Records
---
Amino acid sequence: MSDKTYDVSQVRSYLQGLQTRIADALGALDGTPFGVDAWQRPAGERLRGGGITRILENGALLERGGVGFSDVAGEQLPPSATALRPHLAGRGFEAMGVSLVMHPRNPYCPTAHMNVRMLAATKEGEAPVFWFGGGMDLTPYYGFEEDAVHFHGVCRDALAPFGAELYPRFKRWCDDYFFLKHRNETRGVGGIFFDDFDELGFERSFAMVRSVGDAFVNAYLPLLEKRRATPYGQRERDFQGYRRGRYVEFNLVYDRGTLFGLQSGGRTESILMSMPPVANWRYDWQPEPGSPEARLYGDFLKPRDWLV
């Protein structure tokens, strides 16, 4: 959508503030502040701009947590950005967003991902064509129905002011997107996902994105507080590492944000901060029937309406 009210400065200001609020909240819960790594693309490269990576590793609660803000521009949209908009191929672009992944140490605490972003296709003499994307999803290693219900309830409430149809629509989109086709399983219990979104106009679409970004702390932190003291042993850690392998597979094979960053020449260290610190793979492994690990597969790793 071309929109003369497009104002990149208000998007940038919101995203920078969101990054700070989320990193500060999670750092306070962990008891360890997130470090700050500001970066800038070297002059003369095909990608211009920079960003800030907020990172925490080896914390008391978070084995790794990263909250990244990036604001970059280039001369040509990468293929991942024009897959659904081939008529924009060859345009320049500006992309900015906040992307985070939290990998707790305790296997009973779920991993969470959230991303909100805006991309504008630019062409000299024409108004920018903008769209938004983002969402959040939850990846438990040991499933709790009440946790999934809480997470989805917060997602639904964040979208409700913008149309009752958005939550079921974005929930289905999330289930379809975070699906490992080669494993025939979902990555977790889902949440919401949307991309190439501009149908509400710039101001209203941006307001929806703000509502989603602002909801993350309420969706996720109560789950960490509830599960962080649950006792666990090596069995649970081994299973956590095995399931984290699925996270790696999805991010490297399917994730549009990862592909966009790598295809556009982005900063690899910041792009791959979403990877878990420890993961493992086992050949043709199956959980024991009736075990908590088997219950994850049977009850949680398939699309399901959590709010009935």
---
Amino acid sequence: MIVALEGEVAKKNPTYIVLKTASGVSYGVYVSLFCSNQINQNGKIELLITQIIKEDSHKLYGFLDDSEQRMFELLIKINGIGATTAMAVCSSLSVDAFYMALKNADESAFKKVPGIGAKGAKRIITELSDAKMNISNCDLTHSQALAALISLGFKQENILKALSSCQSTETGELVKEALKKLA
């Protein structure tokens, strides 16, 4: 499984880049518009990769930021939300705007994303707010830490207990502190 790629940007389209590695192998990687805006043609970059293998395709999705990658991975777990729609969300909403839309149950923010209608917006809010995020009880930092720990495979109820006794105010430190309590 490919988890990261480093190389030179050989070709750049708005949501797709070709990354040529030092070994001479070139990879096609789908990226969000936010990510694409930070990438320079012929510049050297390292991307975090989510690899999706299906019967008829093998696709790579690249991220400069691990929080955007976690957001993408949460979205593709929702029934009816595929990688293309998840990447459209990543292109339309920043990570902070995404978590705020979930926290406020703002369907209109999700309906602005191409490919998401009223049903899709409700599904995202319902599944991520209730089942996985429990955002109503957390601020943005706790929400991001909760998402990170869920993606590591911990159970939500255990994570919430650990986070409730943590003192850190930064997401990274909060995750580290919670990991110590979950161990």
---
Amino acid sequence: MSTNQSLVLLNEMATFVKVVETESFSETARQLGSTPSAVSRAIARLERALGTRLLHRTTRKLRLSESGQQVYERCVDMVNAAQAVMESSGQFHIEPQGIIRISVPKAVGHFMLHPHLPEFLALYPKIDIQLLLEDRYIDLIDDGVDLAIRITEQPPGGLMGRKLIDIDHLICATPEYLQKNGIPQHPHDLKQHQCIYLGEQANDSKWKFQQEQKSITVPVRGRYAANHTGVRLSAALQHLGIASLPYFVARHALEQGSLVQALPDWHFKTNYSGGAWLLYPPTRHVPPKLSVFIQYLAEKLAAEPILI
């Protein structure tokens, strides 16, 4: 069969699928807004073109022939492909709308994501955002979440994802603290300072630094530990010591000069570094509301300053 002939018979193929699904010429005619005789003629044209009988017909039932079963499976693929085309094209014409539920670590949500959301909501008045600030592991399907941002070097399998930005960490303090207590010149100098660290695990007080091929681990101490980046930022701004912070949390204070990076020639390494990945369940067609949000957020975060 030539390509032109197969294109002419597309309607007959779709009608054949409907007949098999309904097991009735009359019901197919009702659903298609046609007549039973027109449906019968469409099936006959398809059988003549293919040179084979597709259906065995009795007074009570329609039954697929062996060749009809094979043709039906191919025709179903065609109908599904046509439906996918219509759904895909609809994404370009339907105004994005609906609720987007986003799970995001607390610090990332507060300092990195939230500042961009008012503009997004203004751009898309029919989209609502539900921001879930939580550091626990969530299952996107079971918890009914559309998107999740996670800090990881390797996104989990079974999910689609897009890397948004690298998450770097540094240590910093106020100029006042450093003027009073001295500026560390080497990681080992930190032993003489008050250090504000995470404090969740024993290794959180062992700070790791790298310079080219040289790696150093320094045990630090301090009178204040906190497992919240916002609290550690506030403690540093109140001159309580040298704090470990993600760059995106400390950035504005660094730009304003209220905080100064310590040991800038050394790379501060933590177990909480990695890429910020935007994750979502696998799907062939991303809904318009998610598509515009993913693109918007990726563009905004790509323009964020990075730690050099």
---
Amino acid sequence: MSTPTVKLLINGEFVESRTTHWKEVINPATQEVLARVPFATPDEIQAAVAAAKAAFQSWRKTPIGARARVFLKLQQLIRDNMADLAATLTAEQGKTLADAEGDVFRGLEVVEHAANIGSLQMGEFVENVGSGIDTYTVLQPLGVCAGITPFNFPAMIPLWMFPMAIVTGNTFILKPSEQDPLVTMKLVKLALDAGIPPGVLNVIHGGEEAVNALCDHPDIKAISFVGSTRVGTHVYQRASLNGKRAQCMMGAKNHAIVLPDANKEQTLNALVGASFGAAGQRCMAISVAVLVGEANDWIPELVAKAKTLKVGAGRDNPDLGPLISCAAKDRVTTLIEKGMEQGARLELDGRQVSVAGYEQGNFVGPTIFSSVKPGMDIYDQEIFGPVLCIVSVNTLDEAIEFINANLNGNGTAIFTQSGAAARRFQQDIEVGQVGVNVPIPVPVPLFSFTGSRASKLGDLGPYGKQVVLFYTQTKTITERWFDDAVTVGKVNTTISLH
């Protein structure tokens, strides 16, 4: 039986690539080859962009209500197919079935928000800004836009991108992660079933060459990216130099402050869940716990809770599944070894975990270090695995200063029962997304994802109100109409509108 091939989507048709460069999609729990994904040729990328450019001319003038109804239908199709989407996501990415459904659901929320575009894409109007002169603004689509998505959320992040871009009147080129594109392609098929016309949504696959082609193509007006800091910085610089808008959500090192007055049971549960869920492969994972004062006495109980987590294949719905690849596992285990070498205290070692029946899986169990300091690789680097670093400080002020000294600014949290401490924290912390007794403060789509500092390049975030501005150009019209019965006076050479 031959291995299935992942198709390209060009001008409404799923087509077989003519490339000679392919990559295998691997089940990270079993090493089973699920499919082969093509690295699209330059001609195929050009054809996708050309289809999007041609489709833009009619799609941009499609009534806003008609665009909204496409996404009303898509959200229902996603709900109807939730179990199948989650199973596919789990097979190729590794996360548990429950977490896979959460991945799809958080994207579904953005689809629902897109269906409300009629109230989101409104301009402004003021009558009589001058004598008989009115001024108004409209938010018009840019043209062809592109999105580059990562392996860790192959449903949610594509759904962050193409629905909002398309519903605002743009056409779109999506480049999913080549490591797990299968669930993304199922979502794309559902989008076509919901009524997205040919050419409005196109999909290419590939690696660095495909990314560069999207950054360089003169007909692409904007690029959205989620992924590593290294690639995101490259995308932002290259796209910007080519005159494009770019928004890049990148790496993180998210800290949670724990004050001694926090509810111990709730806090420990939150830390363990946010650190080790999805095997730590979240850009919003809590990877550093900053324990203040007597909260340092909680380390043994934190370790005990982590030991209770079950590691296994995602389809068996354990607490955490495997890492995405053998290379990812090797990188995480190497960083654990470096942490020990550089003086951190290994409180819990997850390197030797074994899962019966899945001996080839990329498993690393919950791992906890204490006595962690800046300068250690486990602190300075985003591990992107189930590793929690513990830092000990004496006061809240020390904790805030410590977090602000880190370059990244994706998310942070504080656990406390003191309103005064929480208020000081949220005012003084220099991080874009803040949780108060909430470990992963990713906002719902009524608001915008607001990562900051080295975790983000570009002014406007994905989804929410900000992304409507990202995918549109504000055009301001000042107009005056004369009554034929009114005689116009003399020539006026001043700047006044009166």
